[in-house]
Design goal:
Length: about 280
Amino acid sequence: MEKNANEIIKIKRSIEIPHVTNFRDIGGYSVKGEKTIKYGQFYRCASFSRIDESDIKILKELNLKIIVDLRSKGERESEPDIIPSDCEYYNYSGIVTMDNPNDMANQFGGNMDMKDILMNILQKNIEMPNPMDYLKECYTTMAEHSQSFKALFDLIKQNPDKPIAFHCTAGKDRTGVAAALIMLCLGASEETVMEDYLLSNMYRKVENDSVIESLKKYTSAEEFLAIVRSMLEVNAELLNAYFDKVKELYETWDNYFEKALGISSEDRKNLKELYLE
């Protein structure tokens, strides 16, 4: 059966790296002006904490030069990245309040690793949060405190010739916001950004199913497992909450890029010249 154009693009975008979930290229998307984002420049993914030599070989073939880790201190210390010898490593916590002892996340271990959060709930008998309330708070916090994304863009501006991979734990929330910002900066529409964001549900399905199965050793409650599923997946409502908070605070994307991320109109013009074709 012949595949349609969108299916072909999605296949090309996903790159099989055995020990890195949800690894994909954000190239190939159309932007305003009938151009597309170049392949081989920006990769989004889950963490590099389990990679081996076979994975490193693939990363070298991709000419990867920079890895940006958006995880919190607790996540990094629990499962540190394994860094290929020819890559530079930077850490900018995507949700800066996670290192604050008063933050909601700290009752779940101070991170946004959904599997860890769920195990904490089960083992410590912590009350199950409303997943949408918890995750929306995480997303609006990213809009209110954008230091990590500013640092990411500073790196991009300073290293125009170096392909970059950015990740969190699952490669779906903080990573999803970072991918959205790069795509929006280069001229992609919010609709295109949302399409890329929601692909995490397809590319993480096997991993998510595995987490659900592992939790069944502790509980068979269908309602609980349904809530777990919602926490493991992405939802358009979450990214829209981020968009809405940005517009509440800054009114326009132009204002947000300039005031929060330090990207001037001239910077955006230069980035488009570099990363569009």
